[in-house]
Amino acid sequence: MPTSYEMDLLRVVFTPVPNSPPTKKRPTRRMEQSSNVERWGWRELAQLEYEEVIESGKNGSVYRAYSSTLNRTVAVKEVIVANSDDRRGGWQFEMAKREGVLLRDYIKHPHVVKCYDAFQTMSGVIMVLEFAEAGDLWNYVATTNSGIAESTARTITRQLMEALRYLHDDLGVVHRDIKMENVLMRRTLKDGIDVALADFGFATTWRPPDKSYEAGPSRRMMGTFPYVAPECIDPDQHLYPHGLPATDMWSVGCVVISMLTSRMPFGDGDDRDMKKNMFAGLYTPLGDDASADAKDFVARLMRLDPKRRLTAAEALQHPWLQKK
Ligand SMILES: Nc1ncnc2c1ncn2[C@@H]1O[C@H](COP(=O)(O)OP(=O)(O)OP(=O)(O)O)[C@@H](O)[C@H]1O
Ligand SMILES: [Mg+2]
Predict the structure, then answer these.
(1) Cβ(100) – ligand 1 distance below 6 Å
(2) pTM
(3) What's CA 171's distance to the chain center, in Å?
(4) 198 lines ligand 1 (CB under 6 A)
């Protein structure tokens, strides 16, 4: 698995540091303005024609762009490392590089977003990704009042589990930020379900001999409340070391609950209420019309003790996912 040495192999592209916050407006900064390009065919990047901002946040933006080199529409994810100290090898920069390297060089799976290329810039990392036309799962579920059909949720979950089985067992990678916003939909559901797991910004390798597991970013608590597993937000309990595969399985349980109910996994209260529900094991119940298999599947993921949760390989054998 990648170590920090391999991460240094990220090709370096120097682009001007943007001095204004990202906006939803069409970006005027074009790649042709890049200078001092090292070891990389800058002409290819120059042929990226930005079309619109898909999402902009404080750590960067995701754009839709057209690549005449690839002859297709792509998504360009720019991660900007906020603190200038961090650009000189701080942990945030290491995390951004790790995402680029993992996606570009290691993770190849039908249900993980495809990465055509990744580059290091003065201010962060740029990734050129496949463009998921139908957006993310959160946006889709938000359009429903009472969640999506169980058979649809099952297929989406099966595809996610296949990706996680591969990441956990074959690569030793744990995602650490599974949530509906990070599940992309390649097609609208009426055209057939095809999802891709995205956003490996918090991902890490978890197999103990890997040095990156022992130090630095891997030991930090990562995730998004309220999808994050209990062991990640309550370090006093020492339920389990952070960053291990079981934390992803908890978060998938949260995604299944939200897909089937269109509600948050631990109620709509404030963070304190949600946390109380989480540690009491009180997750949002599935409706009466949900199958017994679906309820059993969720119960086996939402176990406070990470050692008692299903693994991805076991989840794929569960009757709920075995059903066609
Ligand atoms: N390849 C893609 N195709 C289509 N949309 C995408 C793609 N990648 C990301 N997005 C959209 O952009 C959003 C943010 O991307 P991502 O999750 O990778 O970044 P992030 O670091 O979480 O950014 P943020 O902090 O804004 O959430 C996703 O939730 C999704 O809506
Ligand atoms: Mg995200």
Answers:
(1) no
(2) 0.86
(3) 16
(4) yes
